[in-house]
Amino acid sequence: MTMCKGVPAGALPDGSEAGQQVLLVQIAVSQVTGVALAALVQPDRGGVREAFARQMAMYLCRLLYTMSLRDIALAFGRDRSTAMHAIRRVEDAREDPEIDRRLAWIETVLQRMEACHD
């Protein structure tokens, strides 16, 4: 497990709503990108695919669940500035139709899951 200011990565409270939302996003991104779930919270950057998949997951946590940068950073074992950079990078990358299509699909799936849960 990685540490970010003394707190393990993925350290949002077990069973909390935010913790469950992060996990759902991570699973969805992992499935769509083919990047291992563990790679999304590994301490090092990993390859380009792993880093961008992690950035996608951070972006979706912010977009869909309006999580704070602090909580996103904590969940992924990063700092706030890294989370902010990730979100901006993915916003810019959405100009690519393939990336936009993948993100839109993940958003739809997660929103439908959320609607079924309510």
UniProtKB/TrEMBL annotation:
Residues 21-90 form the Chromosomal replication initiator DnaA C-terminal domain. It comes from the Bacteria. InterPro entries: DnaA_C, Trp_repressor/repl_initiator. This is Helix-turn-helix domain-containing protein.
